[in-house]
Amino acid sequence: MAPRSQMKRKASTAAAEAEAATFSDDEFGDGVLEGVLSDDSEDEENSDDEAEDVDGQDEEDLDSDEVPSDPDVDEKDADENDGPRYRVEKDANGGERYVYDEIDPVYDSDDSDAQDPENTIGDIPLKFYDQYPHIGYNIDGKKIMRPASGKALDALLDTIEIPKGWTGLTDPATGKPLNLSREELELLRKVQMQEIPEEGYDPYPEYVPWFTQDEETMPISAAPEPKRRFLPSKHEQQRIMKIVRAIREGRIQPYKPPEEREQDEDEEEEMYDLWANEEAQPPHVMHIPAPKVAPPGFDLSYNPPPEYLPNKDEKKKWEETDPEDREKQYLPHGYDALRKVPAYDTFVKESFDRCLDLYLAPRVRRTRLNIDPNSLLPKLPRAEELRPFPTVGAVEYNHGTRVRSVAVDPTGQWVASGGDDGAVKFWELRSGKQMASIRISADEPVNVVRWRPGSAILTAAAGQDVYFIIPPMLDQEVQQANRAALDTGFGYATNGKQATLTSNGARKDPPGTWARPGARLEDQGVLLKITVRADVKVINWHRRGDFFCTVSPTGQRSAVAIHTLSKHLTQIPFRKLPGLAQTAQFHPSRPLLFVALQRTIRVYDLQKQELVKAIQPGARWISSFDIHAASGDHLIVGSYDRRLLWHDLELSARPYKTMRFHPNAIRQVKYSRNFPLFADASDDGTIQLFHGRVHNDLMTDPTLVPLKQLKGHKVVNNLGVMDIDWHPTNPWLVSAGADGTCRLWA
Amino acid sequence: MGRIKKKGQSGAAKNYITRNQAVRKLQISLPDFRKLCIWRGIFPREPNNRKKANKSSTASTTFYYAKDIQYLLHEPLLQKFRDQKALEKKISKALGRGDVTDAARLERNAARPEKTGRPPYTLDHLVRERYPTFVDALRDLDDALSMLFLFASLPSTPAVPAKMIARCERLCLEFQHYLIVSQSLRKSFLSIKGIYYQATIQGVDILWLVPYKFNQRVVGDIDFRIMGTFVQFYMTLLKFINFKLYSSVGLVYPPKFDQNRDESAAELGAFTLEGNAAKALADASVQPMITEGESEKSTDPKTQAAVNKLIKQMKDTGVDGQQDVATTSTDAEDAAIDKFEPAAPGGDILPQPVHSSGDPGQLFANCTFFLSRETPRQPLEFILKAFGCKRVGWDAVLGDGAYTTNPEDPAITHQIVDRPIVQAAQDSGDNQTAQKLGPNQRMPGRIYVQPQWVWDSINDEELKRPDLYAPGAQLPPHLSPFVQSTHGGYDPTIPLEDQEPEEEALQDSDEELESDEDEEEEEDEKADGNLAVKAIKGAAADGMDVAGSDDDDEEEEGGEGDTTFGGFSEGEDAEADDGEPEEEDPELQYQRELIAEMTGQPVAQKPALNPKAKAKADARKKLLAQAKEEAEDIERAKGMLSKKKRKLHDQMMYTNNKKSAEDQKLREKRRKLEKQKARQAPA
Questions:
Q1: CA dist., res. B670 & res. B520, Å (int)
Q2: pLDDT value at position B208?
Q3: Mutate to test the interface with B, among A309, A327, A347, A368 (most CBs of B within 10 A)
Q4: A660-704 tens-digit pLDDT
Q5: Ranges of chain A whose pLDDT falls below 50
Q6: Is A225 within a domain?
Q7: Are the beta carbons of B190 and A361 separated by less than 8 Å?
Q8: What are phi and psi of B472, to 5 degrees?
Q9: Residue spans with biased composition (Acidic residues) (chain A) (predicted)?
């Protein structure tokens, strides 16, 4: 322990004791233990300290200065040592009272540990006592007063001269300043420097050659010295020779200091003709030369023609646009003299950009078509050269309700129309006069009307029934002939025979029932009725006028039916169809039946009863098609997905041309019989006319020319033109519209 | 059965390689890779299908052609780069050890191009590889020259060492010397960016841009290291090109360079060209000190005789570089190409090279120029010398190397001035006879012109009228000689009437008619250029005379009719246009006649229509109908095109329309300007 700390502690404890003594007077009345108490140990210590610290006298003096009461206490102690171990005082009654000093139980005489830090508070942190004047209790249960600390004077004095062993730390156990002695500091230093803290330890003792210091008279091994100890090494010789040989051959150059680099930088290196023996190589296929910078135009001139100078608006616009969006990176500017031309601001920037373009920009070879755009357009014949074709609406027939179907009779005199009101109306073609109106169905709309080729018999379909109508405005003779044609079939009585039994014995409905429609209708000229299994949407006659086919898309197995008028026979040719039948048509010259399903058109040979061909127009939903009458090899297909397709049956199963000129679905397509024309009807209320010439020469492709859009029908409920039909002899067209009118276009 | 092809084993997936892959493959740093790419001329590609080229990834990356990168693997520079890198590592290690002497020794081996301006490797082999023939190199010279001329005028900075700038400047001046000697400069153009030059060497047109002599402003983030990489290559390229060019005209390369004269800003004059054996060219260009002493060189018979003799001698020896040029030029006259005229019709006509009558290289051969203080000396000196002028003098402040610095030298025939005229001198109309002292002092017998005269003269290959370019005069517009006039495009050199389409001309004349009725006669003459309108107008003029004989009221009426008619015909509905006026006219006429009958007055002549306006309206209507019909036809034909072709057609039409809209705008502006001028002129 540093003497200084001793002194201090001693002084402070003494003071504490003095105070404790004064307190104890009040608390403990008896002085029984006082006699036992002695300050011997303290005194001894004290003397020891004094003996040790001869040189530390000054500090002691200082200490005594600090605590002025100390010398007094010391003196008092000294006095007490001499006299009896008690004092005589007067008690409250005026009697004598022996007050003994506190007994010192001299524990510490053989216990050095307990003495040094008088830790009386155990592990409790010191700060718990911050609010109190004392720190812990001594063995007598008296408060150990807090050592005097933090006094301004103390601090000042401490700063004036740092006492020996002072560390500035506070002992956490006692709250007293922690002083370290020189030995302790030395110990700490050793620990810190990772030396062995033991005193007098020598890490590097003198080496004693225990085994060789003495030469033995008898050697351990008697073997003679090996020869290699006296000969130069062969291996080393080999290695040296290797190096020598390398040096001789020049493989290893002896070290030469690098020659001084010529300081004269201007000295030109040797010049030679790089292209002395040049040979042209064709440029690599993948090499794309960098595009050259465009040569300057007139507007880049320092004094351009005045029309190249921007006006105020252009200037403002240029300035407002982002530099990256500008079409030109400069604004033309005119100067009236060369001396006024300033430096170009972004010169360095532009050449830097050019550098970036050269090495960063991906290069692509683009073929720029430097041709007249009009040369791309096909050379079409002029519309005037393709006359005649219908151009204007000539006659309007007012049906009243939505007209679903329209047909021109084979003589070209009459027009029949069938509408939503279930009535079939007959019109004179040229005048537009209504000749007759027959209401064939009360609740069902008339889906389709078609004339029988070669005679004046109209077939009309409403619901599941197909009616045969002889128009009343005809001559009696003609009417008679037609009646006969309709009635011949009754003799065959096929109706009963057809009702066959199915395999499981149940009686099956006949595919079609031929009957008289009833007296009311018979009076009006409706002479015959066929009832089939589902709603009939399409009727198409064979060119000879004996057969016709009906299509009822909802009829599943019996969707397509072929009827023979002369025998009153109804047949269902297909056991099963691979889709929903949309429409069907006979080939104009050969015994073929074309059946349009949703996506394909299938061609069946009726004689051989087999599939001949499947045409795939590529449309999603076919609405209608028509076969070119003259050649029989061409087909136009209209679809609900707005496409009109021309098929060459000889060429391919895929369309020859696809035309998409309608914004809405196409309902009907028709070839003209006598003219190279065809038309389509669309939901957008327009009819488009095309010139479609089929050449006799098989090598020439058909010529297709769009001619005209006939506009006139109004669009009602997203429906425009429902049906069209060509006039048999003239280039006229009759159309049926959803707006309740039919029109003749001429 | 062939093997099933694996994805990513062939085609675009193998042909292209991304930048990162390339860098990893070459095992170099990105800046080194960039350098190699710039020098080898390797550029990124755009594969047809990015997805196929990049393992189905659509991330935006840069693709290189895989073969390009493969070639780079064998590049000798790659080893140099690696050595350099190893050396740098050694130095830094030595420094880390604190071994200064070792570091210093290694440092001596290291090249410090940023200090010396010279890299430790040469790029010669790269030039040869990139340009297997000399003509290939010439083809790519545009960018090189522009960049070198720019660097020659840059201030030196840490990024651009002074040595590099000096080298650039020397190379450029050497190249200019070649152009002067070979007289292969063709065109030049003063733009707002700088001066464009075009030279034709071995049939290759080379166009480059030289900035004006100002301090260049460096804006934005410009990486001078990249530009420096380019310049390094360009310097090597131009060095070899210069060598080849010099040797092709029998000169020694490099020419002798006089440091002292260069320091006194002699520029071109600092070089002394030498022929392979003798040298006489230098006599003319670098002997100004001697000639300066002689006052009347051209008129002195003695000197003339001496010069003639000298020339004769040189012809005999035939060793002089310049004389070679002269002889070749005379040879060229003999070997001039013949003009091929088609003997019989029906054959195709092949384009033939234009053969000008006079030698453009000798345009200024007979002139002696003096450049005033304020004129840009370098470009003028270069151009004048390149076009045959041997004697160019300038003010002493412009630098060394002038033929004469004395402005009063009587040999001077042309003086180039670019200063405003001081007010007092305005009364002296003719610049040639004016003899005044003071600021506008003029020497007699001398032509004073502005610098633009030189440029316009060389571009047109003839000496332009100097009075148009007199000091203080309003200069004619300076036009770019590089613009090829296209059919239908706007050309400022052709009068407006010859190039505007019919409908524009109609509209134009219509506006004129509306704006000022009283100038009709004149405008008739003016608009004569347009043939289509002329006939109609001629017919209309007769009617006008008749109308003119009538009283004023009716003329006013006519004016009204004109305006209403104009309003009507502006309507777009052409079908209505077709029918109505014809129907209306007889009706109106009939009405008028009836009224006249009732009132007992004579029938008013052509009351509703100004005949001229009518003719014009008819013409316009016809045009409109025609245009409509054409549009319909096109629409019909377009319907028959496939989707792809229709899109292509639309695109082409879009660009064409855009171009023609620009031209139309220019024509409109010019029309307006001309009208303004015409209005001002009479006033």
A1: 20
A2: 96
A3: A347
A4: 888 889 999 999 988 889 999 999 999 988 888 888 877 778 888
A5: 1-80, 114, 264, 266, 496, 499, 501-502
A6: no
A7: no
A8: 85, -10
A9: 37-81, 101-116
- Nearest residue in B to A705, CA atom: B640
Task: Provide CB contacts within 8 A for B303, sequence distance 6+.
Answer: B294, B297
Indicate the burial class of B415 (C-beta count within 10 angstroms; 0-12, 13-18, 19 or more).
Answer: buried
**In chain A, how many domains are there?**
2
User: Least CA distance to A335: which residue of chain B?
Assistant: B192
Structural domains in chain B, sorted by start: 12-74 (no CATH), 124-249 (no CATH), 360-469 (3.40.50.10190), 497-680 (no CATH)
Tokens of residue B251, six digits: 């000169």
Flag if B142 and A349 touch (Cβ within 8 Å).
no
- Residue B403: is it exposed, middle or buried by C-beta count within 10 angstroms (0-12/13-18/19+)? buried
Q: Which chain B residues are within 8 Å of A300, Cβ to Cβ? A: 189, 191-193, 480
CA distance B403 to B425: 29
With H, G, I as helix, E, B as strand and everything else as coil, classify residue A669: strand
| Nearest residue of chain A to residue B644 (CA atoms) | A376
pLDDT for A632 equals 84
Distance (Å) from the alpha carbon of A193 to chain B's nearest alpha carbon: 27
> Are residues A286 and B65, on separate chains, in Cβ contact within 8 Å?
yes
Distance from CA of B7 to the nearest CA of A (A): 23
Q: Could you tell me if residue A525 is inside a domain? A: yes
User: Tokens 């039909």 label which residue?
Assistant: A725
> Which of A154, A185, A204 is the C-terminal boundary of a domain?
A154
Q: Best of A309, A351, A372 to disrupt the B interface by mutation (most B CBs within 10 Å)? A: A351
Residues of B in contact with A271 (CB under 8 A): 239, 243, 253-254
Chain B residues with CB-CB distance to A386 below 8 A: none
CA distances from A289 to A346, A358, A359, A498 (A): 26, 10, 12, 84
Q: Are A694 and A631 in contact (CB under 8 A)?
A: yes
H or E element in which residue B533 lies: helix B531-549
- Residue A642: both structure tokens together: 């707005």
- The candidate with the shortest Cα–Cα distance to B197, out of A87, A54, A295, is A295
Shortest Cα–Cα distance, B227 to chain A (Å): 7
Residue A347 to residue B150, Cβ atoms within 8 A: yes
Query: If you search the block for the tokens 């010859």, which residue do you land on?
Result: B498
Structural domain range at position A86: 3-154
Of residues A528, A571, A518, the one with CA closest to residue A548: A571
> Model confidence over B90-114: pLDDT tens digits?
999 999 998 888 888 888 777 776 6
Integer Cα distance of B30 and B22 in angstroms:
10
Q: What is the ipTM of this complex?
A: 0.75
Helices A57-66, A3-27: axis angle to 10 degrees equals 30
Residues in chain B within 8 Å Cβ distance of A689: none
Residue A232: cis peptide before it, omega within 30 degrees of 0: no
Closest residue, chain B, to A278 (C-alpha): B133
pLDDT at site B419: 86
CA A396 to chain centre: 58
In eight-state DSSP terms, residue A590 is: S
pTM of the entire structure? Answer: 0.58
Q: Which residue of chain A has the CA closest to B115?
A: A265
Most A CBs within 10 A among B30, B40, B43, hence the mutation to make, goes to B43
Successive 10-residue mean pLDDT values, chain B, 683 residues: 84 92 93 93 92 87 93 91 89 91 83 68 90 93 95 87 90 94 93 94 94 86 91 94 93 89 86 69 42 38 58 51 41 53 64 59 87 91 92 89 86 90 53 46 84 93 89 90 83 82 69 50 41 39 40 40 38 41 59 71 56 81 87 79 85 88 89 88 68
Give the distance from residue B21's alpha carbon to the nearest chain A alpha carbon, in angstroms.
Answer: 16
**End of a domain among A134, A154, A174?**
A154
